[in-house]
Amino acid sequence: MKILQSDILKKFSKLTHAFTNKDGGVSKTPYNSLNLAFHVKDDAENVESNHTLLSNKLRYKKDSLIYMKQVHSDIVHIVDEDDSFENPPTCDALVTDKINTPLMVMVADCAPILFYDDKKKVIGVAHAGRAGAFKNIIKNVIDCFINYYNSDAKNILISIGSSIGKCCYEVGGEIYDETKKLNIEYAIQKIDDSYYLDIRKILYSQLISHGVDEKNIELSNECTCCNTNKYFSYRSNSITGRFAGIIMLK
Ligand SMILES: [Zn+2]
Per the structure, how many domains does the chain have? Predict the structure, then answer.
């Protein structure tokens, strides 16, 4: 199993983290092979096996993993006693200061985002596609770190994994109109009569405007839709698996 590690997160010995890709699982086409999502009509036993393989690789207890029923919202959830592998919360971001509690965000084109404050020992994950970016889920996560854990935004480290690039994200005129209403039309590139949306540019700008230091932001420029041999991509094939970003305090 080939996982990816973040340059800004890997130096912390009390932190486990990774971005997965398609490699190293047991699921069959079109979920081959490390699909981590139960809701995409893959064989549940294979998904379960994939979670076991990943938990062995990263050395956490599979049943301690908290993932999300993601709904393209801006809802941030602080992990509580009701959350479990069997009972994932409905939200698009998770935050916790609990140790040995891995958090997971699953994606196929949307951006998987990992957050870490080493001073306060708080971690978070977020799922941001167009809806999450337009609703500014980034702001809600940063606010959660500040309001519930007394974080200083300047100390929060952010790693954004691979997601769809503007190269493959053509959108209609109604989306362009929406960006104008939200004052984020800088994220649209017009080529001839077509519009291309740059989600990463929005996320980066939101992080900066909420006080995150640019040196603490790591942003993958790999496009999932251009690299379907490596990543699941919903735009490329709507019947597909999900890869993940994971983070855990030890
Ligand atoms: Zn692309």
Answer: 1
Compute the distance between CA of residue 137 and CA of residue 144 in angstroms, rounded to an integer: 11
Classify residue 202: in a domain, yes or no: no
- Enclosing domain of residue 48: 15-164+217-249
Torsions phi, psi for 31 (to 5 deg)? -105, 10
Domain-embedded: residue 142:
yes
Domain assignment present for 203: no
- Torsion on CA atoms 162, 224, 34, 241, rounded to nearest 10: 120
Dist. CA 73–CA 79, nearest whole Å: 17
Query: How many angstroms separate the alpha carbon of residue 188 from the centre of ligand 1?
Result: 15
* 230 CA from centroid of ligand 1 (Å): 13
Q: Which of 81, 68, 79 is nearest to 126 (CA)?
A: 68
Instruction: Give residue 5 CA to ligand 1 midpoint distance, Å.
Output: 22
CA of 224 relative to ligand 1 center, distance in Å: 7
Tens of pLDDT along 185-226? Answer: 999 999 999 999 999 999 999 999 999 999 999 999 999 999
